[in-house]
């Protein structure tokens, strides 16, 4: 059986060149990108990584990939990341792994953004996957109530042990469920008006190239 994530993740390494500053995303598909980059570094490729999560940083350090913080680079040449959903119009939802704020900051600083996905992540419209909102713990219940007054259903993300999930930034995540985002730009503007929402998982027009691994072993490249 073809590992769609692996073939997509490894394919993205072809865009990485010697001396580049590379944004390293978070998730189960970009995991394979980072593993491959680790192999290439051992073979002599010189890059500097900027990790979007503590999880990614640990993986990269274990593989010998040199890292810098976002504060220590002026610009990122290329960022490779995954997505929870993406449309043919280059609109996506990210944040299933809880790293949406850092992922968006790194994407914003990048000259080129590549997303690696399996074909099940390609959708006609956004919303089948819950939309994550990173929120300040102080008053998160007020944020939830504010959304519910607007008819928006949001659930507090918890861990398997039922404890509240916390991001690497010490914040909570509310996941908007049972909602279709047919006009994501309007939703982005709407959510930006809610005090206490630090960032939301709509990534609109960030991605330049989508690399999609398919069940038959083929790789589809979707470019702007």
Folded structure, characterized:
The protein has 224 residues and is an alpha/beta fold. The protein has 2 domains: 4-123 and 204-223, Rossmann fold (3-Layer(aba) Sandwich), CATH 3.40.50.1360; 131-196, ACT domain (Alpha-Beta Plaits). The protein has helices spanning 4-11, 30-42, 54-63, 100-108, 140-149, 184-192; strands at residues 21-24, 48-51, 76-81, 85-86, 91-93, 110-118, 131-135, 154-156, 172-176, 197-200, 202-204, 209-213, 219-223. Strands 2-1-3-6-12-13 form a 6-stranded mixed sheet. Strand 4 (85-86) and strand 5 (91-93) form a beta hairpin. Helix 1 (4-11) crosses helix 2 and helix 2 (30-42) packs parallel to helix 3. It is globular, with a radius of gyration of 17 Å. The mean pLDDT is 97. Pathway: Carbohydrate degradation; pentose phosphate pathway; D-ribose 5-phosphate from D-ribulose 5-phosphate (non-oxidative stage): step 1/1.
Helix and strand composition category:
alpha/beta
State Rg: 17 Å
Counted beta strands: 13
Helix and strand string, N-terminal first? HEHEHEEEHEEHEEHEEEE
Pfam families: Rib_5-P_isom_A
Subunit structure: Homodimer.
GO molecular function: ribose-5-phosphate isomerase activity
Function: Catalyzes the reversible conversion of ribose-5-phosphate to ribulose 5-phosphate.
